[in-house]
């Protein structure tokens, strides 16, 4: 399992640079066209010059295809590094999403369930490979931790499995990123990343 935050940050930077380059080209071509082909005194109002440019149009189409292929290849390459799960995780947590709350069940029997007024807190040890299995009790939800640049959809009748490593202590905010009903916007949760000793203490008291 690799660092999802840095992996997806690199992919996002690539998309940003490509988007910026395309925007710059579009604005430059538009400005050139406005200046070069503006209407002048004495013009009859008809367009001037060629109305077809097969070579330029072909190069444009090829350029778009190359950009699309580059982005698709980079996206799949990043996903291939992030998606695989390891054989021996340090901790296992089962995630259950339902309208409109989360439940986190640990392999030692501990369970965390949110209420309408209190967000649930997923407690995990720092620098530990955590194996998550996620499912939904009703409709499609989405387990999203923005600061980790990580999101997985959670489906009914199907289990989704993924690994995560949290490399620094602190409290993170997570959301459901799939519209799932009237109180979808309230379906948040916390992730509290603690030291190994603090996690063992929490396990004993949970």
Task: Chart the SSEs and their pairings.
Elements: H1 4-36, H2 54-82, E1 91-98, E2 101-106, E3 111-113, E4 121-125, E5 129-136, E6 141-145, E7 150-154, E8 160-165, E9 170-176, E10 188-194, H3 196-205
Parallel strand pairs: 1-5, 4-10
Antiparallel strand pairs: 1-2, 2-3, 5-8, 6-7, 6-9, 9-10
Helix pairs in contact: 1-2
- The number of helices is 3
Radius of gyration: 25 Å
Number of strands: 10
The CATH superfamily of the largest domain appears as Cupredoxins -  blue copper proteins
Instruction: Say what the CATH topology of the largest domain is.
Output: Immunoglobulin-like
Question: Which structural category do the helix and sheet elements fall into?
Answer: alpha+beta
Keywords:
206 residues; Helix Hairpins; 2 domains; 5-stranded mixed β-sheet; 35% helix; elongated
Structure, explained:
It is a single chain. A hairpin with a 4-residue loop joins strand 2 (101-106) and strand 3. Helix 1 (4-36) packs antiparallel against helix 2 (54-82). The model has no long low-confidence stretch (mean pLDDT 85). The chain has two domains: 4-82, Helix Hairpins (Orthogonal Bundle), CATH 1.10.287; 91-205, Sandwich (Immunoglobulin-like). The protein is 35% helix and 29% strand. The chain is α+β, with helices and mostly antiparallel strands and 206 residues long.
